[in-house]
Amino acid sequence: MKRNILPITFPIVFAVAFLVSTATTAQAVDPACSLARAAGQYGFSDSGTIVGIGPRAAVGLLTFDVAGNITGKVTASLNGSVSNTNLSGTYSVNPDCTGAASFDEFDQSGKILTATVEIVWDNNMREARFVFTSVTLADGMALSPVINGDARKLVP
Predict the structure, then answer these.
(1) Which domains occur in the chain, in start order?
(2) How far apart are CA 56 and CA 54, in angstroms?
(3) Which terminus of the chain has a smaller tally of CB atoms within 10 A, N or C?
(4) Environment class of residue 142 by beta-carbon count within 10 Å: exposed (0-12), middle (13-18) or buried (19+)?
């Protein structure tokens, strides 16, 4: 007995082709991780140590914009001395949800340091983990940070 499989095969092939093409288009239009998806306000905390100086802990509020700029307010304790600073800089986001930021921190006297961090976003870009990769004081002295932290996007 001979069966004609064309009536069954054609709809299946068409459906698969349609699903693949729409999935590819959706991914191209809205990548999993991007500056646009990272944009927003985050509450953060970090802790660790500055080698040769002492322990550090901080909390603050950061704002990431869609153009790749970052601003924020930080309250930090370094070896028991508490300070309040503002920061500004730039950040990047890769399609695999990794990224980096470079920023300057300022207190009432002016620029106090420049820092860089490596970042990984998770939880649908609602949370981020970061580690400091460099800290340089305004006078050019490089410090050795061993600091990591977490940030969570605030609900609008």
Answers:
(1) 35-153 (2.40.128.20)
(2) 7
(3) N
(4) exposed
pLDDT at 106: 98
Q: Is the pLDDT of residue 22 over 50?
A: no
Structure tokens at 66: 């869609």
Q: Give me the phi and psi of 137, to 5 degrees please.
A: -70, 160
SS3 at position 79: coil
Strand partners, 9: none
CB 53, CB 143: distance < 8 Å? yes
91, 71 Cβ separation under 8 angstroms: no
Q: Tell me the Cα Rg of the chain.
A: 23
Q: How far is CA 100 from the centre of its chain?
A: 7
